[in-house]
Amino acid sequence: MSAANDARPRPLTPLGMLLWFAVALTGAAAVGGIALHRGESINSLWFIVAAICVYAIGYRFYSAFIAAKVLVIDPTRATPAERFNDGRDFVPTNKWIVFGHHFAAIAGPGPLIGPTLAAQFGYLPGTLWILIGAVLGGCVQDFVILFFSTRRNGRSLGQMARHELGPVGGIAALLGVMTIMIILIAVLGLVVVNAMKHSPWATSTVAATIPIAILIGLYMRNIRPGRVLEGSLLGLALLLFAVWGGGWIDHQPALRGWFDYEGPDLALMVIGYGFAAAVLPVWLLLAPRDYLSTFMKLGTIIALAIAIVVLRPDIKMPALTQFIDGTGPIFGGTLFPFVFITIACGAISGFHALISSGTTPKLLSNERDMRMIGYGGMMMESFVAIMAMIAATVLDPGVFFAINSPAGVVGAEPAAAVAMISSWGFPVTVEQMETLAREMGEATLFARTGGAPSLAVGMASIFASAFGAGLLAMWYHFAIMFEALFILTTLDAGTRVARFMLQDMLGNVIPALGRTSWYPGVLLTSGVVVAAWGYFLYMGTIDPLGGINSLWPLFGISNQMLAAIALCVATTILIKSRKARYAWVTVVPLTWLVTITSSAAWIKLFSPEVGIGFIAKANDLAAKLGAGSIPPEKIAQTQQIIFNQRLDALLTMLFLVLTWVLVIDTLRVSLRVLRGRAHPPLSEAPHEPTRLVEDWVRD
Amino acid sequence: MAMRALQRLWNFVRRMSGDDAYERYLEHWRVHHAADGGQPLSRQAFFKAEQERKWNGVRRCC
Q1: DSSP SS3 for A284
Q2: Out of 1.20.1740.10, 3.40.50.12780, 1.10.287.180, 3.40.50.1970, which CATH number does the structure's domain A3-198+261-674 have?
Q3: What is the per-residue pLDDT for A290?
Q4: Do A221 and B47 touch (CB under 8 A)?
């Protein structure tokens, strides 16, 4: 094998060794500084330095080890993109382009919201989990799944589970993906609704993104077909205009009433929108919205990184808060396991396994590129999570808790809320909150749960300080628009994918429903999917605790469960490929995930605390209902909430059972392999030498 | 030198966004399918088919 074809990194020279020693030392100092610092505030530069050093070392050494020893990447082997090159799905593509596509696909709103919520424990637990979880868990998952899918002609996670584990694993994986999709869409919808509640500016700006996307869709299809860049630039200009226009509408007493709604009304609108987006042709709404949101996402993330590096704001949140004991206002539950559930995306996200299998493998031109795309792509997402953590913790802790605590916990009256939050040791005043709300162009910032408003306040203050002050309200609503834009893209795309899966399943029973071209079938299945997530979304808006409280942990558990499924599949394949001695690479994160999802699910089910356990909450409300202490006008709503808590409990139970079925199935197959008994064979595609002449410049 | 770097950046942006998809399709068609006779898709028809294909699977994550 020639040097150029060797996937293994070159051995370290003495100078290189010195350099990496310095990186390790700097990283250790930065992480130690973050961990041991106790004082008024700490500079965010520490976080950036710690993150970059941890990623650099993880990438240079751990991912190289996985590539060379565990997976044994073979650059002389033809990839599916080369073998099946059809110019459509399978296309050998330059690694930077694939990296861009892969990153744009995996980086959604998740890594922005999770760290914001987890900041209630202080900055330290979340930051450590984001760094360690990514380097040893998330990056590894994305990398190995990318590799195994590529070696299996780009098969999806569900197909791999069926082939490598058998039908039980396959069904569990499919069910898992369906339910996670429903919960994910509901919780993201709730984040958008909470950001728009009683905010004519935010609501009108977000509403404007719909006609803008349709206009761009028509432009790219009819006026200037396929001119994606032109269309997107036009759309971006219109979006910025919409942010400004929303401010104008907010100042027109005659107009602002048209965009001022309660949460449940907004939920119904989002549900209606979701259905329309799912049944309209993709070129009209979904595709142009995705172009705009991808540009906006990449641009804003880069701008945020630059602003944080230039500005180096001080972190005001303490390293740890008293809420590690489980009494936190944003979500209930102790530090272990709930910090690991709350931050899924950014540390380890099972959803990535769906992108790493199926989509990205069909574009790889050489196996050598996988390390950068799989491992490196997740590192980038983890860095986004670190930035979100910084944006949440640069706020005064009192302000952070005032924005994120639901009225059901701290009280609906501003005076009561600030008194309660100040009594926790995080001083904040009504005047301070009123001034902040006025600066951000909002009527109030109390109890704006969901993470989006507090992230927007943090981003607005960072952007305004770095790129020109005085425009706080514009920056705030820009940040809200930016979050809403790609949350709604996830909502559209997720509904569509869940519909395809449902059609696929129903098609086995009633063939007509499986045809994606039969319009009544499309309407019916879309309706079922939208109704499923719409139900959870609507229930979230009438929940006095704000809904995020119960939905986000459910989402975290389901996402980590999907990661566990992916790692089960990966472990089985490693053992079948006679790599049992390296199986710890996936078994360690798998064990951790099973531990945290099982304990979190158990606590959510059986905790006697009303603020944490689903069943305890349902029983408590039922007892109150029985004792007649619920006011008559609230009885119907309370009954709904009781039903919903029981449904949440049922779902949690389903996740718990699915995870363990998969784990036991993995153990069963692995033991059969190790004992030399009959087992499903390895489904790897045969080796074919690559013939690709590389006509682009590699690094 | 700077011009070449800019040109490469521009090509990268066009490729990333799919702005050059039709040109690449024509190239692919000329090499692989021109011999079979017939006509390549129009820019408009290609764009529509491409969008449908692209959104037939998991494309976006949380």
Answers
A1: coil
A2: 1.20.1740.10
A3: 92
A4: yes
